[in-house]
């Protein structure tokens, strides 16, 4: 195992780094909106269900 070469992912063939970054940005936006929506629902529940 020690004799294996180190893989350089930026230059690996077939690696679409721009698409990976776009997918990650979309995931972060989904998480951001999900957390915000959950917080809003909790705040509204605290106001109207008390």
UniProtKB/TrEMBL annotation:
UniProt-listed Pfam families:
COX4_pro_2
Q: Which Gene3D superfamilies match?
A: Bacterial aa3 type cytochrome c oxidase subunit IV
Q: Which InterPro entries match?
A: Cyt-C_aa3_sf (IPR036596), Cyt_c_oxidase_su4_bac-aa3 (IPR012422)
Q: Which domain of life is it from?
A: Bacteria
Q: Where is the Cytochrome c oxidase subunit IV bacterial aa3 type domain?
A: 4-49
Residues annotated as transmembrane? 30-49
Keyword check for Membrane, yes or no.
yes
Q: Which UniProt keywords apply?
A: Membrane, Transmembrane, Transmembrane helix
Protein's name according to its UniProt entry:
Aa3-type cytochrome c oxidase subunit IV
Q: Which organism is it from?
A: Rhodoplanes tepidamans
């Amino acid at each position: 195992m020690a004799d294996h070469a180190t893989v350089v992912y930026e230059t690996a063939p077939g690696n679409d780094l721009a698409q990976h970054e776009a997918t990650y940005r979309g995931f972060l936006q989904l998480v951001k909106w999900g957390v915000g929506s959950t917080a809003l629902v909790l705040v509204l529940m605290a106001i109207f269900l008390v």
